[in-house]
Amino acid sequence: MGLIKLIILIILVVACLTLWQRIKAWQAANQKPPADPVEPQLMVCCKQCQVHLPQDQALQSGKHWYCCREHRDADHD
Ligand SMILES: [Zn+2]
Fold first, then answer.
1. I need a surface site. Which of 13, 33, 56, 74 has the fewest CB within 10 A?
2. Please, what sign has the CA dihedral across residues 15, 16, 22, 26?
3. Residue 52 — φ and ψ, nearest 5°?
4. How many A from CA of 47 to the centre of ligand 1?
5. Distance from the CA of 40 to the center of ligand 1, in angstroms?
6. How far is the CA of 50 from the centre of ligand 1 (A)?
7. CA-to-CA dists, residue 5 to 14, 15, 17, 18, 39, angstroms
8. Kind of pairing, strands 43-45 and 59-61?
9. What's this model's pTM, rounded to 2 decimal places?
């Protein structure tokens, strides 16, 4: 029966194509560049002059933050 073989062949080809498309879609979904989360910059306030600046540029003394060494040293609380 050549017809049954032909039908089986068509089913196999369709199955392979479907699988291939799924693999391609899966790969495309996984190759998306990871979203670069913009980390919110933590701002602190200088105790001496009340200027706001990023925490990584501020100077800490105890639980207070200062914009510069002069303000940190000038504060004697
Ligand atoms: Zn200051």
1. 33
2. positive
3. -95, 135
4. 7
5. 22
6. 6
7. 14, 15, 18, 20, 60
8. unpaired
9. 0.48
